[in-house]
């Protein structure tokens, strides 16, 4: 990718030493037009990932004060250049601790061009089990979901952040993909919009708080391409400022590692429309490439999976209410498991459904079925995890299962 030309006037004090903080002047510009505010408010309030039903753009702009800050870590020389609301920055520790999970030993992935794709992707370098950690990474850059300063263009802030990083880090950033046409935005803005991953930070309370969702750039994990039936998921840990890439099902060496860019329960046409709008590509994953006759069935399955928990009685209600058929709760969860496996959507509470089925058979004192589904629930967890060991103990002695026989008693 060719080098981008840095704008000549980034916000002041952008060049800084390790861990230093530079504060920006408060926004004193007039609020945007009412029509723009109304449109932004509707978009933010309706976005389930942002969880901000009372968002008010005008109040948000008025109450933001920002600073540039480099985050340093206790276990590595890497740094993260951030633009943060000063209240959010005040909640960060002086040094970030080590991630809760250790990076895997040996090379678990490679970044290369796929056989049927024009861009780069992430591919497994070894077999990865369910729940296996593929990568653990700190972000290179973190910015708010909305930068509420009108005194500078968006590209100016990204320029200032890159000035706070090493030349090697900047070069790696410039190699990331840019799906946005030049007529839409500057190259730096395009790289940020193409590769940023949503992460959640602690924010202070009060009127018009900062949005918890921020945008992070991860040099390796941002390379993961999309699938409507992904084999991996992101797992963010705000305490250590680290993102883990976790396998949702077994991944064989050489397989591409994929994640979901858009909600997987919406219809194929909606997924494709969102991907085209946000990332400028038409999805051709195996789940979108199905014949038209199977597409409507797939859409119906995904809609059903989105609503499966809403009308289910609780486990306790099922145990205590003898008018509910014995298999009713179990059958709903079994159907969900079948749909998830058919659609490649283990990200949608697959483990919880396995647990619920095992609990149901345990409550019915069905040793054979309990052991079968408890083993499946165990196998969906990392083999060395505490949860897997607990499940193994219950399989060895079902009578020790905490809700054993509840339905019959």
Q: At CATH's second level, what is the architecture of the largest domain?
A: Beta Complex
Number of strands: 13
| CATH-derived topology of the largest domain | Beta-clip-like
Largest sheet, if any? Answer: 6 strands, mixed
CATH class of the largest domain: Mainly Beta
Structural class: alpha+beta
Pfam family, one: SET
Protein name: SET domain-containing protein 5
InterPro entries: SET_dom, SET_dom_sf, SET_domain_protein
Organism: Favolaschia claudopus
Description:
Residues 1-27 are annotated as: Disordered. InterPro entries: SET_dom, SET_dom_sf, SET_domain_protein. It is built from 13 helices and 13 strands. With 409 residues, the protein is of the alpha+beta class. The chain has two domains: 21-27 and 64-279, Beta Complex (Beta-clip-like); 292-400. A six-stranded mixed β-sheet has the order 1-2-3-7-9-8. A four-stranded mixed β-sheet has the order 4-5-13-10, with no helix packed on it. Strands 6-12-11 form a three-stranded antiparallel β-sheet, with no helix packed on it. β11 (232-237) and β12 (242-247) form a beta hairpin. α11 packs antiparallel against α12 (367-379). It is globular. It starts with 20 loop residues before the first strand and ends in a 13-residue tail after the last helix. The relative contact order is 0.10.
């Amino acid at each position: 990718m060719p080098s981008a030309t840095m704008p000549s006037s980034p916000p002041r004090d952008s060049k800084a030493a390790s861990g230093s903080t530079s504060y920006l002047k408060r926004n004193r510009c007039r609020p945007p037009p009412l029509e723009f505010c109304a449109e932004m408010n509707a978009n933010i309030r309706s976005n389930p990932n942002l969880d901000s039903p009372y968002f008010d753009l005008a109040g948000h702009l008025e109450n933001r004060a920002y600073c540039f800050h480099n985050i340093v870590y206790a276990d590595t020389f890497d740094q993260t250049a951030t633009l943060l609301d000063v209240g959010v920055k005040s909640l960060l520790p002086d040094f970030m601790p080590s991630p809760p999970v250790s990076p895997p030993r040996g090379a678990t992935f490679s970044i290369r061009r796929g056989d049927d794709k024009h861009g780069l992707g992430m591919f497994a370098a070894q077999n990865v089990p369910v729940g296996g950690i593929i990568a653990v990474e700190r972000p290179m850059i973190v910015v708010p979901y909305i930068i509420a300063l009108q005194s500078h263009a968006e590209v100016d802030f990204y320029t200032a952040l890159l000035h706070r990083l090493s030349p090697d880090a900047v070069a790696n950033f410039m190699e990331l993909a840019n799906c946005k046409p030049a007529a839409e935005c500057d190259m730096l803005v395009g790289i940020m919009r193409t590769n940023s991953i949503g992460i959640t930070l602690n924010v202070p309370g009060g009127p018009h708080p900062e949005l918890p969702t921020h945008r992070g750039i991860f040099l390796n994990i941002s390379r993961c391409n999309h699938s409507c039936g992904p084999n991996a998921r992101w797992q963010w840990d705000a305490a250590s400022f680290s993102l883990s890439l976790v396998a949702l099902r077994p991944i064989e060496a050489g397989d591409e590692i994929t994640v979901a860019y858009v909600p997987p329960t919406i219809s194929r046409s909606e997924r494709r429309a969102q991907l085209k709008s946000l990332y400028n590509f038409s999805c051709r994953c195996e789940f979108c490439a199905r014949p038209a006759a199977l597409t409507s069935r797939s859409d119906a399955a995904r809609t059903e999976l989105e609503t499966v928990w809403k009308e289910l009685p609780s486990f306790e209600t099922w145990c205590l209410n003898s008018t509910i058929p014995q298999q009713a709760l179990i059958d709903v969860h079994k159907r969900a498991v079948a749909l998830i496996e058919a659609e490649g959507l283990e990200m949608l509470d697959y483990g919880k459904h396995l647990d619920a089925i095992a609990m149901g058979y345990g409550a019915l004192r069905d040793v054979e079925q309990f052991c079968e589904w408890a083993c499946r629930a165990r196998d969906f967890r990392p083999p060395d995890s505490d949860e897997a060991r607990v499940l193994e103990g219950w399989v060895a002695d079902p009578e020790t299962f905490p809700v054993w026989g509840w339905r019959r008693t």
